[in-house]
Structures are given as C-alpha cells and as structure tokens.
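Note to self: keep these together.
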Amino acid sequence: HRIKRQQLVLLALLDKALIPDVLPHLPAIIQALYGSVRTDLTIGEVASLLCLGQKMERAAIQTYAIDGNYVSAWVTEAGAHVIIPDRDAIAPMMEEFNR
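Structure:
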C-alpha cells in the first residue's frame, strides 16, 4: 500500500504545483527542493517537465505498482532477504504501460 500512497502524494503535489497562483513561484520551489531530491535531471529539465505537466489532463495519468503480488521472497546463501520479480506476472502490466 506504500507505493499507492506515494503515487497519491505525487499526484497531489502535481495538482498543487499546477494551481495558477503557484506557477510564478515554481522556480524558487524547485530550487529549494532540488537539494533534497536525488536526480540526474537538471533544474531546467525539471522545470520543463512541470510545463509539460500543465498540458496533461489529470485523467490521462495512469499509475502502476509492482507490489507483493508480483514478487517472491528469497533468502540468499549469505542470509540476505531479497525479492525476486515474477516476470510472467509483470509482463501484462508492462505491455499496458508501453501502450
């Protein structure tokens, strides 16, 4: 459920960022948050993505999550607990995503 909640938070942030009163403040907001986020995108690229976000219809945004239904737990020889993706289960989601 954590993934779904994170997606909801990101969508809510997008909604707030696209309010007309907020738009003039976006460069300062991006600059303030930039040090708290790890990305290889430049500030200009992030700003460009936000501009593209303005043109997107909210209803057109689809979210996907690879949760516990798509993985199997496994313990390595060294005792590490890991999860292994179930590629057959994930394949239909990936096909839908790529459309």
